[in-house]
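Form 7-S
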Amino acid sequence: MERTTRIMAARKNIALVAHDHCKQDLLRWVKEHQAQLEAHNLYATGTTGFQLSQATGLDITSLVSGPMGGDQQLGALICEGKIDMMIFFWDPLNAVPHDPDVKALLRISAVWNIPVATNRASANFMMSSPFVDQDTVIEIPDYDRYLAERTQ
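Output:
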């Protein structure tokens, strides 16, 4: 597929996701980066969003719980260009019932070329990047061109 670009604004749309065994780790990480995160639009799957908002007072748009379709909602937002980056503290040692949804979310993140951090170290690296707080151009699939070629 051909590629095009889109601009991620300086105020990023950041998704925050965590499996049950990782929610406390994500909460601790969010508290450590709260001042920086306040400058961005935050989204989260249901339980994670509720817990983070309650503990930090951050304004977080909460979707439904991951197993109830929140991972798929988040994937749809990524496809629409409404999520710029994702912090996803997932648990690689415990299977989750909605594992196919998790894999689909990670796959769609790769398709649409958004940065994804899957643990504390990668999240720290991502948040320390100068790209986080400035307009940034990324390559994405040229879906409009793809559709136009199919209808000719």
